[in-house]
Amino acid sequence: MTPPASLPSRQRGPGRPREFDTDLALDRAIAVFSERGYHGTAISDLTQALGLTAGSLYKAFTDKRGLFLATFDRYVALRAEGLRAALDAASTGRAKIRAVLDFYADSSHGPDGRRGCLVVASAVDLATADAAVAARVAGALDVNEGRLAALVALGQADGTVAPHLDAAVTARLLLCVLQGMRLIGKTGRHATEMAAVADGALKLLD
Amino acid sequence: MTPPASLPSRQRGPGRPREFDTDLALDRAIAVFSERGYHGTAISDLTQALGLTAGSLYKAFTDKRGLFLATFDRYVALRAEGLRAALDAASTGRAKIRAVLDFYADSSHGPDGRRGCLVVASAVDLATADAAVAARVAGALDVNEGRLAALVALGQADGTVAPHLDAAVTARLLLCVLQGMRLIGKTGRHATEMAAVADGALKLLD
DNA sequence: TTGATTGGGAAACGATCATTTCCTATAAGG
DNA sequence: CCTTATAGGAAATGATCGTTTCCCAATCAA
User: Fold this and answer.
1) Interchain pair B170, A200: CB under 8 A
2) Contact of A133 with A72, CB cutoff 8 Å
3) Which of A21, B28, B71, B193 has the most CB atoms in a 10 Å sphere around its CB?
4) Which of the pair, B12 or B79, is modelled with greater confidence?
5) How far, CA to CA in Å, does A14 sit from each of A9, A10, A18, B197?
6) Is the CB of B32 under 7 A from strand C?
7) How close is the nearest chain A Cα to the Cα of B24, in Å?
8) Nucleotides on strand C with an atom closer than 7 A to protein CB?
9) CB atoms A176 and B180 under 8 Å
10) How many Å from the CA of A20 to C1' of D25?
11) Class of domain A72-205
12) Residue A204: its chain B contacts at CB < 8 A?
């Protein structure tokens, strides 16, 4: 229907070109999988939300699990991109950690908060049944934890975080706060509630 | 087969008595629903784990959702009971909060941690689709948050928690830490890791 | 233009799902 | 003893699930 855009996954080989934007489809799949979970999402839910027929969907992503994995990867990439932007706007280690907390507070209130985090949803829905998903969830959390540890160390180097703290433990503790915000955000919280949590968590750096 | 025990739900009316212990069946259902999620659990999974046929299961719990709700309530009651015991062993407000943190650290490592929390699983799996489940999840979290707020206030009264802290915000922050521990515990953590998180969280009371 | 290759899409497929039936067994009340 | 009421359990039921098939359209290489 619409003229084809650039295809990142296949650089114009033979055959009919894809008519839909893969990333846009994955963006919509993020919303569906996030609020319904993997097992709670039917192919019909996806075809309706993505505006695709089952045939096209299977041609592009092999099967439901393949679509989920691609959706998961896109979600992690998008979140990392947004977080990087928030981090670049802060200078000191403490300010960067505050930026992370604020980023999660922003994501954990209102309708977006209710929709929830796809990593959290994957951890509880698939991590015990699917080894590949479990590895990606653990990897995403490890990246997050490692990033926090680096920021704590940065803050200790620039004097904005207490030097006696164990960076690894503090990072793990902050990770719990972040994931906990995402979890309780599913019950519908106000922006001010979550902002206060983010503020209070800074005490962990003293 | 076995002689009937005491039936709490029905005090010996007419008809054939139930042959299985309802609470024992629910205890097994907790494990199944916790690690597979609601949508990921099939009736056949439950009949196998509980040692019941589908007919008996439907006679006792109406349908899958009814069994889930009963399982959820039993889980919350069991957790509250365990937590109460841990709380009674501590005297000061700070000691009681430490007991809560240790209780969650104990639940969030190893195989039990991997199995996960049924409240967390319900929050991400059903809270957006089922209003009754959403209300129970929100209620369970509210009870937890209120209990933490009372303990913070208790600690401020007995001088073991910093008096200038906002009890409500600190309680919400602690709730995030607890739920976050449950979440990252799904990726398989060691007891020492989670114990360190519990220790570090006490800094929030200074 | 022709052949090879891929995507779009409706319909069909077998499998599995939650649930119900139907029958037998076991109790209480009269 | 007879009626009523509930539980146990195997089998059947209809719906829905994920997936495939089949046919046509669109593009590239020659």
Assistant:
1) yes
2) yes
3) B71
4) B79
5) 14, 10, 11, 55
6) no
7) 23
8) 3-12, 16-22, 25-29
9) yes
10) 15
11) mainly alpha
12) 200, 203-204
Distance between CA atoms of residues B183 and B100, nearest Å: 16
Cα–Cα–Cα angle for B31, B34, B40, nearest 5°? 110
A48 touches strand C (CB under 7 A): no
> Is the CB of residue B134 less than 8 Å away from at least one CB of chain A?
yes
Residues 148-177 of B with CB under 8 A from A: 166, 169-170, 172-173, 175-177
Fold of B73-205: Tetracycline Repressor; domain 2 (1.10.357)
Taking all residues of chain B, what is their mean pLDDT, rounded to a whole number? Answer: 94
Tens-place pLDDT, residues B141-185? 999 999 999 999 999 999 999 999 999 999 999 999 999 999 999
Neighbours of A172 (CB within 10 A): 23
d(CA A37, CA A53): 20
pLDDT per residue as tens digits for the range A66-122: 999 999 999 999 999 999 999 999 999 999 999 999 999 999 999 999 999 999 999
pLDDT band at B4 (very low <50, low <70, confident <90, very high): very low
Residues of A with CB below 8 A from B178's CB?
Answer: 180
Vertex A173: Cα angle to B34 and B118 (nearest 5):
10
**Gyration radius of chain B's alpha carbons:** 19
Alpha helices per DSSP H over chain A: 22-36, 43-50, 54-61, 64-88, 93-107, 110-115, 118-125, 131-158, 167-184, 191-201
Looking at residue B69, its amino acid is L
Whether the Cβ atoms of residue A99 and residue A87 lie closer than 8 Å to each other: yes
| C-alpha–C-alpha distance, residues B7 and A123, integer Å | 37
